From TrEMBL:
Origin species: Devosia oryziradicis
PROSITE patterns in alphabetical order: GST_CTER, GST_NTER
Stated name of the protein: Glutathione S-transferase N-terminal domain-containing protein
Domain of life (superkingdom): Bacteria
One protein family per Pfam: GST_N
Domain GST N-terminal residue range list: 18-105
Domain GST C-terminal: start-end pairs: 108-233
SUPFAM superfamilies from the UniProt entry: GST C-terminal domain-like, Thioredoxin-like
PANTHER family: DISULFIDE-BOND OXIDOREDUCTASE YFCG (PTHR44051:SF19), GLUTATHIONE S-TRANSFERASE-RELATED (PTHR44051)
Length: 233
């Protein structure tokens, strides 16, 4: 049995099965990337809800795993060379899990890096911009008299959706095959038009290919399971 006692996070969130991947997460667009990936690959894992609404990601135990205080994070007891490996940042985790499972990231060098570039597009652009739209449209920002910040982020989010729309015009998935690029992006688009309720604000109804892609992704059983993992505790 793997010994994870060297990781302080296991004191607060004990591992019932330390021989499998330990996932510390919450069902947000960033969090579900990893749970969807784990469900898609079939890699054995144990999920621990880190309730960000109660600031659990800022506890000493969680910060010992991710000093940036953000979910998700993992510990793989069987990392490279058989030693435990801790990782944070959802994009890095997706790439690691894809390599570990041999799925959803092409072994062809050119296609591998093309896939990673679309993961970075989500990480650097879609996530931050859609998150700002969520703040200014659904949360505290709605009370701001000055609507310029909201409109700035809405305009940029609309532009980013246009990039995705163009990419999907002649393909079912961001790459030709379903990949970590789709897994990284699905939850954010779903949140934008669902939880954030910003579809009208970003003119989502004018799109054709992005909604069809989102429907295809949400129809996948592993995606449906992953979106609910971990529970909110």
């Amino acid at each position: 049995m793997a010994d994870l006692s060297g990781f302080p996070i296991t004191k607060r969130w004990p591992a019932a099965n330390p021989d499998v991947i330990q996932l510390y997460s919450f069902p947000t667009p960033n969090g579900v990337k990893v749970s969807i990936m784990l469900e898609e690959t079939g890699l054995p894992y144990e999920a621990h809800p880190v309730n960000i609404t109660q600031n659990e990601s800022w506890t000493t135990e969680f910060l010992s795993l991710n000093p940036n205080g953000k979910i998700p994070a993992i510990i793989d007891p069987n990392g490279p060379g058989g030693a435990p490996l801790a990782l944070f940042e959802s994009g890095a985790i997706l790439i690691y899990l894809a390599d570990k499972a041999g799925k959803f990231l092409s072994a062809d060098p050119a296609r591998r890096y093309q896939t990673i570039q679309w993961v970075m597009f989500q990480m650097a652009a879609i996530g931050p911009m859609f998150g700002q739209v969520g703040f200014f449209h659904k949360f505290a920002g709605k009370d701001f008299e000055d609507k310029r910040p909201r409109d700035r982020y809405a305009s940029e989010s609309k532009r980013l959706l246009g990039v995705l729309e163009q990419r999907l015009a002649d393909r079912d998935w961001i790459m030709d095959d379903y990949s970590i690029a789709d897994i990284a992006t699905l939850g954010w688009v779903r949140n934008l038009v669902g939880f954030y309720g910003a579809g009208e604000l970003v003119d989502y109804g004018s799109l054709r290919h992005v909604p069809a892609w989102l429907d295809r992704g949400l129809a996948r059983p592993a995606v449906q399971r992953g979106l609910e993992i971990p529970g909110r505790g």
